[in-house]
Write a structure and sequence with these properties.
The protein is mainly beta and 153 residues long. The chain is 0% helix and 62% strand.
């Protein structure tokens, strides 16, 4: 009945393309509170914070869906922990997308998590930042990190 209220989702113009993948041999930006474990990293947090993992310089990426995907599990997470992606658009500032719809809470097993960011035609980021955000204390393991793009019609 209220279909006119729903925003029209962009239609993909092809399959997902890998921009960059990260594994346990890649160097993280943040070093404190992070240890290499289980084919990835264990992040221990004592407070609300965003933990910067990677920055990816990009060019000529527009009119697509950016996807930050990773395998994660948690131990004793108070509040929530989730993926966070920032896109810097030159002359316009930084914009973010947070995985609040798919957070980690308490203790969980490995699962796939992702957060997306829609870029319109003419929106050309030059830098993408990949983080894990914590609302409180706890431990999160993360591995098999991918940054993907899906072209849009």
């Amino acid at each position: 009945m209220f279909n006119w209220l729903k925003p029209k989702m962009p239609e993909p113009a092809g399959p997902a393309q890998k921009i960059k993948t990260f594994n346990a041999s890649d160097k993280l930006i943040t070093q404190n509170g992070i240890n290499g474990e289980q084919g990835g990293w264990r992040i221990d947090s004592q407070e609300k914070q965003s933990v910067r993992l990677f920055e990816v310089s990009v060019s000529q990426i527009e009119q697509c869906i950016l996807t930050y995907r990773a395998q994660m599990k948690s131990d004793n997470v108070k509040g929530k922990a989730y993926l966070e992606m920032w896109c810097r658009l030159p002359g316009r500032g930084e914009f973010f997308s947070k995985g609040l719809r798919q957070p980690l809470k308490g203790t969980t097993n490995w699962a796939t998590f992702e957060v997306t960011f829609y870029l319109k035609k003419g929106e050309l980021p030059d830098l993408i930042k990949l983080n894990v955000a914590f609302e409180g204390s706890g431990s999160v393991w993360i591995k098999d990190i991918e940054l993907l793009k899906i072209p849009l019609k």
